[in-house]
């Protein structure tokens, strides 16, 4: 973590310019009937979870090029996540991935308190084999043809729930790599029946105040078919399992050009939107930084979320899920958290009364312009003011670079291996 006085000193030099920009934006928004303070308060209250695996350097099927000072385990990861939250004030929770982050619950709680963090959804891992694991997931986990493999995967998920219960988590996210690589390799129907039966056993072990999230993915690691391939199958799972089962939407897990915001609207309409894994993509599940490729799409997703705000029971979980191959993961995660906040703030600026009127009158041009006007507004001063007021950094990237944190942890932490693939 960084000394608070360092952040305060950096903020002091930037504060007067920020106040001038904030006031100017406030006047402009006031002319549009928007109270900038109300928008800022909502942005300030917004938080997004960091995935523990995000603070390590990712990789591709080809190689992984490790950065320096990479976290060696969950406690290092929590240090990095704590710093991200300290500088941005936007990432109060961490999402653990088991068994990568398996540890004594008391130690996890103590470290979370030290770093000012809480725990978000637990993530199970049955897409790779662990060193001490009796049975292999090479041909699937929850949908495997052999009952004993399925049982092993079920028990792992129940273990994740129990660990999560002890550290204050309230949700389990299941993502499986199950699928097939050749036409004919698997019977689609039987495979999905096996998956559903396994998922029911996990759902039965869910505490009353927990939610179960299932995440669809169009392809990979199975290249011909995956069991939970799209939002339709995901919706069927949530409907089959019960009222505490919801669909998680990972933006990268769709074919290019899929209308994700419309999927979001459908899931909201039928009460099954559980949450998000935010990232961006150009070609497939390339896990690029949120907002790096298509910030307008991100805005359109948030437009649906703001539109649905206040619906009873509507409480989607927000998390980043990215792979950082060429950047410092801390910088990418800070930037991405702020991009998500930006999309949220822009969506709050949409004149919804005017939009509804244009929709009713079939005025496509003005409806589109209503959204564009909100999207084109530079809300940077709102985000920065929210950070300043909570003691975070006006400019988190500059403060981070100035702090020398990476150089410090590079001295303290052992170098991690390069090795082969590193898809995370
Ligand atoms: Mn994901």
Automatic annotation (TrEMBL):
Keywords: Isomerase, Manganese, Metal-binding
NADP keyword on record: no
Keyword Lyase: no
Gene3D superfamilies per record: Divalent-metal-dependent TIM barrel enzymes (3.20.20.150)
Domain of life: Bacteria
One Gene Ontology MF term: metal ion binding
Annotated protein name in UniProt: L-rhamnose catabolism isomerase
Species per Swiss-Prot/TrEMBL record: Pseudoroseicyclus tamaricis
């Amino acid at each position: 973590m960084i000394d608070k006085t360092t952040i305060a000193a950096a903020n002091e030099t930037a504060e007067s310019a920020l106040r001038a920009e904030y006031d100017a934006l406030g006047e402009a928004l006031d002319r549009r009937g928007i109270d900038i303070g109300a928008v800022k308060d909502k942005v300030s209250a917004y938080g997004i979870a960091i995935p523990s695996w995000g603070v390590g350097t990712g990789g591709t099927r080809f190689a992984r090029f490790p950065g320096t000072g990479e976290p060696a385990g969950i406690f290092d990861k929590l240090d990095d996540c704590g710093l991200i939250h300290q500088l941005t004030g936007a990432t109060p929770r961490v999402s653990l991935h088991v068994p990568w982050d398996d540890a004594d619950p008391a130690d996890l709680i103590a470290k979370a308190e030290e770093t000012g963090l809480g725990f978000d959804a637990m993530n199970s891992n049955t897409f790779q084999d662990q060193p001490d694991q009796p049975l292999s997931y090479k041909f699937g986990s929850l949908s495997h043809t052999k009952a004993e493999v399925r049982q092993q995967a079920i028990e792992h998920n129940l273990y994740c729930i129990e660990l999560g219960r002890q550290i204050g988590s309230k949700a389990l996210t299941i993502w499986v790599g199950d699928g097939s690589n050749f036409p004919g390799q698997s019977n689609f129907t039987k495979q999905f029946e096996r998956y559903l039966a396994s998922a029911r056993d996990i759902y039965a072990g869910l505490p009353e105040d927990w939610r179960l999230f299932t995440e669809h993915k169009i392809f990979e690691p199975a290249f011909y078919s995956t069991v939970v391939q799209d939002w339709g199958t995901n919706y069927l799972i949530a409907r089959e399992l019960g009222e505490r089962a919801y669909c998680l939407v990972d933006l990268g897990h769709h074919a290019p050009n899929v209308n994700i915001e419309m999927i979001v609207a459908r899931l909201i309409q039928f009460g099954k939107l559980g949450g998000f894994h935010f990232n961006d993509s150009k070609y497939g599940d390339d896990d690029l930084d949120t907002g790096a490729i298509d910030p307008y799409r991100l805005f359109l997703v948030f437009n649906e979320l703001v539109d649905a705000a206040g619906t009873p029971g509507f409480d989607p979980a927000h998390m980043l899920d990215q792979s950082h191959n060429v950047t410092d993961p801390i910088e990418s995660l800070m930037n991405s958290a702020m991009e998500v906040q930006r999309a949220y703030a822009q969506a709050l600026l949409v004149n919804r009364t005017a939009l509804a009127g244009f929709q009713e009158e079939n005025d496509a041009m003005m409806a589109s312009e209503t959204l564009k006007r909100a999207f084109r507004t530079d809300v940077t001063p709102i985000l920065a003011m929210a950070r300043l007021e909570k003691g975070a950094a006006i400019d988190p990237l500059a403060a981070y670079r100035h702090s020398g944190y990476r150089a410090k942890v590079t001295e303290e932490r052992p170098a991690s291996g390069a090795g082969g693939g590193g898809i995370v």
